[in-house]
Amino acid sequence: MRAFWSRFRQNRGAVIGLIILAIVIICAIAAPFLFPRSPWSMVQRPFLPPFEMDGLPLGTDALGRDVLSGLFHGARVSLLVGLVSTVVALAIGIPIGALAGYYGGLVDDALMRFTEFFQTIPSFALAIVLLAIFQPTLAYVILAIAIVSWPPVARLVRGEVLSLRNREFVEAATLSGQSNLRIILRQVLPNALPPIIVLASLMVATAILLESSLSFLGLGDPNVMSWGYMIGAARTVLRTAWWLSFIPGIAILLTVLALNLIGEGLNDALNPRLRKRTS
User: Fold this and answer.
1) Where are any strands of DSSP class E within the chain?
2) What's the number of domains the chain is made of?
3) 20-71, pLDDT tens digit by residue?
4) Which residue has the higher pLDDT, 112 or 218?
5) pLDDT at position 274, please?
6) What is the pTM of this model?
7) How far is CA 132 from the centre of its chain?
8) What confidence tens digit (pLDDT) does each residue in 178-195 have?
9) Which residues on neighbouring strands pair with residue 53, listed in sequence order?
10) Helix-helix angle 243-270:193-216, to 10 degrees
11) Membrane spanning segments where (predicted)?
């Protein structure tokens, strides 16, 4: 861990991204304590500008709701959707990619054709179709994002497994009588984790953007406050109350930027080729 942190902190952008993400996580955790009232509650007159009234530093929206409260509670939804959908996508993509790369042949062809079928459809369009079929609840939003996010994971894992399955340690495990499942879980996948971890950090950022886009279009859960919903609700008053779209937009920008910077730092710290260069 010391060596990993030493390599990670050499990337200043990654450290800055980690600080920004830590602030967002703290805001999400502190939301129910700092703002116990529902973010949907009306607290003042509508369109109150920022810093005009004490207790409402970011003003109010078109219905008189506290923008800062919505921002904090929206952080919880965005992070939840990003993390859970990424975990579900990894749970789908890793087994498919591992089986395709390890067995090859007909198994590889069948699983990769199945993966390519999902990749031929634009991810955003597929997510819209899925949410149009199902109810736009938070669980279905997470499921829809996971379904459109797993194909890159499968292809990455397949490529890593293809490069590892003929290594000496895998052949030694085969000669020792270990089962294929045990070899995949104990020998192959642990050595393929670094690029998967890097991809996962970028997938969280993509999931947050996708959820924000869906909420902007009114396809998110109408019972939860999210940054995308805040931007979508304020698009009709963009000229008269620009801050209602600008503030959650900056929150999305900083969070996605932080996750991308962290992904670059993880790549620098975990990529063996880069480690050889730095050493």
Assistant:
1) none
2) 1
3) 999 999 999 999 999 998 899 888 888 888 888 878 899 889 888 999 999 9
4) 112
5) 52
6) 0.91
7) 22
8) 888 899 988 899 888 889
9) 56
10) 170
11) 12-35, 77-103, 124-150, 196-220, 241-262
For residues 65-93, one letter each, b for 16 or more C-beta atoms within 10 angstroms of the residue's C-beta and e for the rest, the string is bbbbbbbbbbbbbbbbbbbbbbebbbebb
| Backbone φ and ψ of 60, nearest 5° | -130, 165
Residue 232 CB contacts under 8 Å (≥ 6 apart), including other chains:
215, 216, 217, 218
Task: Output Rg (C-alpha) for the chain, integer angstroms.
Answer: 22
pLDDT(2) > 80 = no
Crossing angle, helix 123-133 and helix 138-164, to 10 degrees?
140
In whole angstroms, give the CA distance from residue 25 to residue 251.
12
* CA terminus-to-terminus distance, the chain: 16
Task: Tokens 């998967």: give the residue.
Answer: 196
Enumerate residues 6+ apart whose C-beta is below 8 A from 246: none
Q: So what's the pLDDT on residue 272?
A: 54
A 10 A CB-CB count for 222 gives 10
Neighbours of 123 (CB within 10 A): 18
Q: Could you give phi then psi for residue 155, rounded to 5 degrees?
A: -70, -40
Q: What residue numbers bound the domain in which 158 lies?
A: 2-278
Whether residue 275 has pLDDT greater than 80: no
- Residue 221 is classified by DSSP as -
Q: With helix as H, strand as E and coil as C, how does 160-185 read? A: HHHHHCCCHHHHHHHHCCCCHHHHHH
Of 15, 152, 159, the C-alpha closest to 100 is 159
Q: What is the CATH number of the domain that holds 91?
A: 1.10.3720.10
CB distance 195 to 97 below 8 Å: no
Number of alpha carbons in the 13 Å side-chain half-sphere of residue 25: 10
pLDDT value for 278: 47
φ, ψ for residue 147, nearest 5 deg: -65, -35
